[in-house]
């Protein structure tokens, strides 16, 4: 019991908990503030989104406490069990969509098969959100074991390629299943945080720069083709036209306001209407769809103005910084790669969600972590938050042990020096 209490005492020195509480508070207020806009599309649905958000946050907090108690090493030992457990529902969604098997509780929403209905009217659960947990644990273990086997001085092209192949073998099966649903948003999150983990693994820079350059060229080429030769993408490559419609709305939101650009144009108008201090709680000054989920940042801008958006961005930045600080605290250990992966998830979602809301990036349906409404997202990120806190505790232990070791070494060296070189007069 004393060891458990000592773990929680350590956390009092980490401001990340305060940052998270403030971020969750902003999210709950923003979700409730979006209620008038929610009721426009879902008039027959009882609006209890803020309560549900707190419910899932609370459940996630309980799991996070459990993770802190059992420690990160036990979570690491379960990594493949977690990975395999969430592969099962992903395979079920694939079987329903592609093999047309009657898988129970599957929810088909506008052709997207990404959720299972929960009994008792509790909502839905999205397996891909929890697969991210399994992937970050598995990939971190792959990198750590690889680095233990091949120290930096022994790294070659062959060893780096071997590492990449092992990582690809782990991430491709779930990534393909998630992309087929189709859920390109979560697929991009996975690819991004895996890339960040690979970047931090010690792989040689020339390979990173080569692959990164190729990815940038491919992305620029794709965007150019969407704008100039969309028929090539739809006719020759067989890409669905509706997937490209988001790009058309991104290129010219106000020119396509009656169709593809409606959501972005209305979101920009909503943010602009907020000015410095906003229009007030539940103002509903401008209507736009998905206000409580994808476009929650527009709600913050509309109702709480520039000040509200800057506070939100600042808190997200401070929260991310503390995760990186935890990774640094565990440098060279398994926990460090886990924290880097979690940072990659959060950072990408924050940049993508805020960027698409203000028109800097195309709309992808990615939510803002801890702020947008979403049971699966909130629950999964609270679990990841528990892993970060457990890693922080382990990092403090590592730092303490290193300090003790260096202090004892210095003490012994000093004692030996005095004995051999210093003479005291009788």
Characterise this structure.
The N and C termini lie far apart (53 Å). By secondary structure, this protein is mainly alpha-helical. The mean pLDDT is 85. A 3-stranded antiparallel sheet has the order 1-2-3, covered by helices on one side. The chain is built from 16 helices and 3 strands. β1 and β2 (112-118) form a beta hairpin. The longest helix is centred in the C-terminal third of the chain and has 47 residues, at 375-421. It has 2 domains: 1-70 and 260-412, no CATH class; 85-203, no CATH class. The chain crosses the membrane at residues 12-34, 54-73, 80-96, 125-143, 163-180, 186-203, 208-229, 295-321, 333-351, 371-393. This is Cell division protein FtsW. InterPro entries: Cell_cycle_FtsW-rel_CS, FtsW/RodA. It is found in: Membrane. Keywords: Cell cycle, Cell division, Cell shape, Membrane, Transmembrane, Transmembrane helix.
Rg, rounded, reads 24 Å
Total number of helices: 16
Please count the beta strands (DSSP E, at least 2 residues each).
Answer: 3
| Helix and strand sequence | HHHHHHEEEHHHHHHHHHH
Instruction: Provide the structure class.
Output: mainly alpha
Q: Helicity level, as a percent range? A: over 70%
**Number of individual domains:** 2
List the uncertain runs: none
Which range does the strand content fall in? under 5%
Strand adjacency order, main sheet: 1-2-3
Bulk shape:
globular
| Oligomeric description of these chains | single chain
* Biggest beta sheet attributes: 3 strands, antiparallel
Distance between the termini: 53 Å
Mean pLDDT: 85
């Amino acid at each position: 019991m004393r060891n458990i209490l000592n773990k929680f005492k350590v956390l009092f020195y980490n401001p990340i908990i305060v940052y998270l509480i403030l971020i969750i508070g902003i999210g709950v207020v923003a979700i409730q503030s979006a209620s008038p806009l929610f009721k426009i599309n879902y008039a027959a649905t009882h609006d209890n989104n803020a309560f549900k958000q707190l419910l899932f946050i609370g459940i996630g907090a309980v799991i996070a406490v459990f993770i802190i108690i059992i420690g990160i090493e036990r979570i690491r030992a379960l990594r493949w069990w977690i990975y395999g457990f969430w592969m099962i529902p992903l395979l079920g969604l694939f079987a329903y969509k592609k093999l047309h098997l009657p898988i129970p509780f599957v929810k088909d929403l506008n052709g997207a098969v990404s959720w299972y209905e929960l009994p008792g009217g509790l909502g839905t659960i999205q397996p891909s959100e929890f697969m991210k947990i399994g992937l970050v644990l598995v990939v971190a273990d792959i990198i750590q074991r690889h680095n233990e086997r091949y120290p930096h001085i022994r790294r070659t092209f062959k060893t780096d390629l071997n590492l990449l192949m092992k990582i690809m073998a782990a991430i491709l099966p779930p990534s393909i299943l998630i992309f087929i649903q189709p859920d390109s948003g979560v697929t991009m999150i996975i690819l991004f945080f895996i890339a960040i983990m690979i970047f931090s693994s010690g792989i040689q820079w020339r390979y990173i720069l080569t692959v990164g350059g190729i990815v940038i060229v491919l992305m620029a080429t794709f965007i150019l083709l969407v704008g100039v030769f969309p028929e090539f993408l739809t006719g020759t490559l067989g890409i669905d036209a509706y997937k490209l419609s988001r790009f058309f709305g991104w290129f010219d939101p106000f020119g396509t306001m009656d169709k593809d650009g409606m959501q972005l144009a209305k979101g920009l108008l909503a943010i602009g209407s907020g000015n410095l201090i906003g229009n007030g709680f539940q103002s509903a000054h401008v209507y736009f769809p998905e206000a409580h989920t994808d476009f929650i940042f527009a709600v913050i801008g509309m109702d709480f103005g520039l000040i509200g958006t800057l506070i939100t961005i600042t808190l997200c930045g401070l929260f991310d910084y503390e995760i990186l600080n935890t990774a640094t605290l565990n440098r060279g250990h398994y926990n460090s790669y886990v924290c880097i992966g979690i940072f990659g998830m959060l950072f990408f979602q924050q940049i993508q969600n805020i960027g698409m809301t203000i028109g800097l990036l195309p709309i992808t349906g990615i939510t803002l972590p801890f702020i947008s409404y979403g049971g699966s997202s909130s629950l999964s990120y609270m679990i990841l938050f528990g892993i970060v806190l457990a890693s922080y505790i382990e990092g403090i232990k590592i730092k303490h042990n290193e300090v003790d070791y260096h202090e004892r070494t210095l003490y012994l060296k000093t004692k030996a020096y005095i004995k051999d070189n210093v003479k005291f007069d009788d």
